[in-house]
Design brief:
Number of strands: 4
Helix content: 40-55%
Strand content: 15-25%
Number of domains: 1
Structural class: alpha/beta
Length: 115
């Protein structure tokens, strides 16, 4: 019997321990948007198979580093690409978030993706 608990999110892409723990215990995982992302998702799928768990039960999030000079279209494209790879939620990090217009740019991304 599982005890009631808040959802558990495990971040990281370690293939032997971290993703195995995700498959066994987590409600969600957070990975980095990198060229290795499809491979990491495949490793997670394999661990889920070994655990007898449906990978679809695990919410998959990815951290995408958004350069300060990114356009709204580039960010929207990143969201679409990540969704196509199986990511459920995208977390943007932006080094220039304190600069004027950064929040407005992200709001424009959200508005376009939500349509």
């Amino acid at each position: 019997m599982r005890l009631p608990h808040p959802p558990i999110l495990i971040g990281g892409g370690g293939e032997r321990k971290t993703l195995r723990l995700v498959a066994r215990y987590a409600d969600a995982c957070n990975l980095f948007d990198s060229p290795e992302l499809p491979h990491k998702l495949e490793v997670l799928r394999e661990h889920c198979e070994s655990e007898g768990r449906d990978q679809g039960e695990i919410e998959k999030t990815a951290l995408h580093a958004l350069p300060g000079d990114s356009t709204v279209d580039q960010a929207v494209d990143a969201v679409g690409r990540l969704a196509g790879e199986g990511i459920d939620h995208v977390i943007f990090s932006r080094p220039s978030a304190h600069q004027s217009g950064a929040v407005t740019m992200l709001a424009d991304v959200v508005a376009q993706v939500a349509r």
